[in-house]
Amino acid sequence: MVKVYVTSSAGRKSDNFAEHQTPREILDYFGIDYSVATNSIDGVRLGIGDMDKSLKDLGVGEECRISSIVKIDNAAHVDVTGASAVVVSDIDLEDWKRVEKYAPEALKIFDEETKETLFKVMTGPMAGSINKNGVVFGAHTNGTKATVTILIKDNVENKIEALKDTIGSALLDLNEIEKEIPVVIADIKEKEAEIEKLIVAK
Predict the structure, then answer these.
(1) Which of 9, 10, 16, 8 has the alpha carbon at shortest distance from 113?
(2) CATH architecture group of domain 2-70
(3) Could you state, in order of their start, the residue ranges of all structural domains in the chain?
(4) 15 with 29: CB under 8 angstroms?
(5) Cβ burial, residue 190 (10 Å; 0-12/13-18/19+)
(6) pLDDT tens figures, 136-171
(7) Which helix (H) or strand (E) element contains residue 121?
């Protein structure tokens, strides 16, 4: 059996499936409309033909992560220049910091069954970092947008494929969180405005 974690616009679910089952069967099991979404397994995009391949044929191990996310017009992306790759958020760094301070739970993805934190967004110093467990946005920004800078080794021939392997799933998880941040920010600002009305300087 394979432990499969499924991420969609509706949230995250998990269950055990046999090696012979396919991504299409698994998404159907969870009632997810994958026809209008970008589908991937462990960060690698699934083509139309891949949807009917077995988990075994797709090379998964004891567990895997399937994502089925409707395309987001404004989302984090990666700019590759020379030996550097920069993950650029669509959210301002200061807004990430505000959410981190007032609504930190909005920056996490949890396993529905165990309530374990599977992915987390934070802010920090220097260039930041990104991996399958989370993102730390660095102190430097692209204008005002939060960023993470990654150095790519000189001997890497296909930088795009290397980035897909190393940060592909993290980028999908980041965008799952990122799409909710404008709503969270609006709620925080509304509460701040209410508090300000209660504080009167004399």
Answers:
(1) 16
(2) Roll (3.10)
(3) 2-70, 77-189
(4) yes
(5) exposed
(6) 999 888 789 999 998 888 788 888 888 988 898 899
(7) strand 117-123
